[in-house]
Structures are given as structure tokens and as C-alpha cells.
Amino acid sequence: MNEVSGADEAGLERPLAQLRSVLIPGETVEAWAIQSRLFALLHRRLLIAATSGRLIVLTRKTTDLASLGAAASQRVEFRGLRRSEAQAVYRICQSQDQAWREKRRVRDLEELRARSGGIQVSPGTLAVGTAAESDAVRRLQEAKQLLDARLISDAEYEAIKAKIISS
Known about the structure:
Blueprint: H1 13-21, E1 29-34, H2 37-40, E2 47-51, E3 55-58, H3 70-74, H4 83-115, H5 130-148, H6 154-166
Antiparallel strand pairs: 1-2, 2-3
Helix pairs in contact: 5-6
């Protein structure tokens, strides 16, 4: 968490305790920013925190950013934050957003592959002796080609390989 400069930021114990009280088990605060005292003379003071899984904004008036829907997803602006603290929160939120986009992209590709019938390598019936070994080698080679062509994921390749080896 950010370092608090003692005399400059007296009275942060209560907002930070409130922040800790809304964390879910296993969630950690990566960075936080609070509005400067000068800005807070005219407005309610905000505490903004980027955690391991979400962005939390604490004010005296309760506002749930998720319930704002599409309007909040376009742009949210907070004034009066210290630049270094705000940049730290922003960087963490950006990296989390990129990670979620990549997860969504992979999931969409997997769903598309599943809808198109996917590719399955079935063990089939194996002959005894050399024919069985050559069939297993052939199927391993096919699975490797599918992996190299990026038609299957590493996990799918390992599952296919395990089936072939165990049979």
C-alpha cells in the first residue's frame, strides 16, 4: 500500500479501516489514492483503491460503480488526487483490464472451437504389437501437428497425449 506522510495526512486511519472492511477474503490492496486536503475543502473526500480484483471508491455517500451500468463503463473521472498515487491505481487497473480481455479472448476462441465441432483425437481400437505402436506414434504426430497449427491448446494436447500413452 502507499506510504502515508504523517502530519500531512492525519485522519486517514478511519478511511483505511473502512477500506479494509470491504475487502473480501484473499483480496489485497495493490494501491490507493486519496483526494488532497485542499480539494476536500470544497468537496467530499474520496478514497480510491485498486485491489487484486476490483476498483473500490469510498465516499461518505455510498455509490456502487457497477450499478451505474454502461454510463460508468465509458469514463469515470476523479479530481483532486495526487498524481503519483492516481497513476499507481491507474496502472494496476489497466493491467487487470488487459488480463481480463485476454481471458475473454481465449474463452471466446474456445467457445468458437466448441461450436464448430472442435477437434477430438479418439484412441480407437488398437492392434496388438507393432501395429499398435505405429498407430500410437501416428496419433501423437497428428496431435502435435494440431498443437503446432494452434488448433488445440497445450492443455488439450497434454490430455490427448496422456490418453494415447495410457492406452
